[in-house]
Amino acid sequence: MKRAVSVSLGSPKREKGAVVDFNGEPVQVERIGTGGDELKARQLFTELDGQVDALSVGGIDLYVRLDGRDYPIHAALKLVQGVHQTPLVDGRILKYVLERRIFERVNQMLGEQLHFRCAFIPFGTDRVGLIEAVESVADQVFIGDLMFIFGLPTPVRGLKRFKRLAHLLLPAVGYMPLNALFPPGAKEEVHQPKFVKLWQQADLIAGDMHYIHKYSPADLSGKLVITNTTTEENLETLRQRGVRTVITTTPRYDGRSFGVNMMEGALTAYAGKNRPLGAQELDALIDELNLQPYIQHLNP
Fold it and tell me: Which residues contact residue 101 at a Cβ distance below 8 angstroms, ignoring those fewer than 6 apart?
């Protein structure tokens, strides 16, 4: 059986293994959380190199891709310096492929054209495909990267302004330490609402589950959430906060949806080409394997 392993900077509490069926071929997937321990992550990558069919990096991207250019995250690249044999991915290509098509696929499943008055994306640097998709269905889009990384009080409005700012900042951001960049779930799980007004005014919230779990207010009544990597506990938290519907960009396997880095690793192992897959290859596999988003109505 082929095996794909994600070594994540995220919490060990979210560790999970499962066997996924791709057109009758089983692939064993496993997520190992290191709780932000960079040394442990580096050791695991080195130990697993050559022992599995695909490796993926969780909790941080190796590069941020924007308008065809890859901006390196130098501290993340140090984590995988010992990987020389096994195909290595970080999910950024699959993330773009999946998220830019999310409403195309969800609208078909729901049989309606979704539209929103206001959308909030708490962190969008690694989710340009999601911003593109959201902007196509929302009257206003607010992006919170400057708020959550630098503590600035105002969001960026719209994809055009966001891209302009990102091209300016990414060369410098690539040299920041990992503990300033990876999602808050890698550090702590304490609920700490921030920028409450933005969460409340949005009828669509899209982005990383760690940010939603930690920073959103206790009342998200009637909102639709698009995210990924949800556990049963995450879904219960969203239900208690009043979320109407949650959509994950990847399917659920054995009670949870895995992160796109894990899914890209699984697809890389399944393809068996002993190299990372390109965007067109991943797009074709999504259709071949009929990988659908997962929709759950929590408070209909």
Answer: 133, 286
Spatial contact of 291 and 250, defined as CB atoms under 8 Å apart: yes
For residues 65 and 281, the model is more confident at 281
Structure tokens belonging to residue 122: 């708490």
Residues sharing a CB contact under 8 Å with residue 182, sequence separation 6 or more, in sequence order:
9, 10, 36, 59, 60
Cα angle, residue 157 at apex, residues 64 and 184 outer, rounded to 5°: 50
**pTM greater than the 0.85 cutoff:** yes
- Both tokens assigned to 143: 């992006």
| Partners of 21 in the β-ladder | 26
Q: pLDDT tens, 188-208? A: 568 999 999 999 999 999 999
At residue 243, what is the residue type?
A: V
How far apart (Å, rounded) are the C-alpha atoms in residues 255 and 239?
A: 16
State the Cα–Cα distance between residues 211 and 189, nearest whole angstrom: 10
What the block records as the tokens of 196 is 């409450």
Instruction: Classify residue 239 by burial, with Cβ atoms within 10 Å: 0-12, 13-18, 19+.
Output: middle
Place of tokens 């049989």: 111
User: In one letter, which amino acid is 237?
Assistant: T
What are residue 44's phi and psi, to 5 degrees?
-65, -45
Instruction: State the DSSP H helix or E strand holding residue 262, giving kind and residue range, or none if neither.
Output: helix 260-271
Give the tokens for residue 287.
Answer: 């259709």
User: Can you say how many angstroms the Cα of residue 236 is from the centroid of all Cα atoms in its chain?
Assistant: 19
CB 113 within 8 A of CB 107: yes
What does the alpha-carbon distance between residue 54 and residue 270 come to, in Å, rounded to a whole number?
9
Cβ 107 vs Cβ 114: under 8 Å: yes
